[in-house]
Specification:
three-stranded mixed beta sheet, single chain, globular, three-stranded parallel beta sheet, alpha/beta
């Protein structure tokens, strides 16, 4: 899901998790109206990684296990490896048992993000909701996490709220929002085939600015080179 700032991406994330309900129409997952199920059961089916993840005061291990309290130490460490977090965790003074401080204050933004991704992985939920989950990572860490997430996404509905269009280039369905409305949808190739599309305009903006953001999509124009990042958007939701 892509769109400029204020297009409605955050609202859609909130609606998907039933932080509030729609006034008209419905949202369905696998053909079932989410307003007909309990909020608890819906949210248990979703693993969510926000753009600014919050860690609880406690150890790194505790924070990952919060995704699924029954997770074993082996499952926690495997999730950390998939999130490209295991290496930096083992370099901490007490490894997985290192306290992170309130809000994860002892870790960098990128490290907090990777712990948050590991927490989502260990949750083993059928729906993975990523709100620009790699935004705080450097290019090398992002590439490693993107590769890991490609495998984690298999067999799951994955919804990606993207500011960097490189994260959705190979999605099987891309949705473009503008001023609260769905204005375009398709694959990267089909949307780029129309040089006047909103999606194509976003790419010209990012190419000129050299950024992975679409928030200033009405200001500049130049193409962005194609990347190889892979994501799956809303396969069954």
């Amino acid at each position: 899901i892509v769109g400029a700032s204020g297009a409605g991406k955050s609202t859609l994330v909130a609606l998907l998790q039933r932080f509030y309900d729609v006034d008209e129409g419905s949202i369905e997952v696998d053909g079932q109206d989410i307003s007909k199920v309990t909020k608890r059961s819906l949210r248990q089916s979703i693993a969510y990684v926000s753009q600014a993840p919050y860690l609880f005061e406690g150890t790194i291990r505790d924070n990952i296990r919060y995704g699924r309290l029954s997770a074993t130490d082996a499952e926690i460490e495997q999730a950390a490896k998939q999130a490209a977090a295991d290496e930096f965790i083992r370099q901490q003074p007490q490894g997985y048992d290192t306290p992170v401080g309130e809000g994860g204050s002892t870790l960098s933004g990128g490290q907090r993000q990777r712990v948050s991704i590991a927490r989502a992985i260990v949750r083993q939920a059928p729906i993975l909701l990523l709100d620009e989950a790699t935004s705080a990572l450097d290019n090398e860490a992002e590439a490693r996490v993107q590769e890991a997430l490609t495998h984690v996404m298999e067999g799951r509905t994955t919804i990606v709220i993207a500011h960097r269009l490189s994260t959705v280039v190979n999605a099987d369905r891309i949705i473009v929002l503008e001023e609260g409305r769905l204005v375009e949808e398709g694959t990267h190739a089909s949307l780029m085939a129309d040089p006047h599309s909103v999606y194509a305009r976003f790419h010209r903006v990012q190419g000129k600015k050299g950024l992975g953001l679409v928030d200033d999509a009405k200001t500049t124009q130049t193409p962005l080179p194609r990347t190889r990042a892979k994501k799956t958007v809303g396969r069954s939701a």
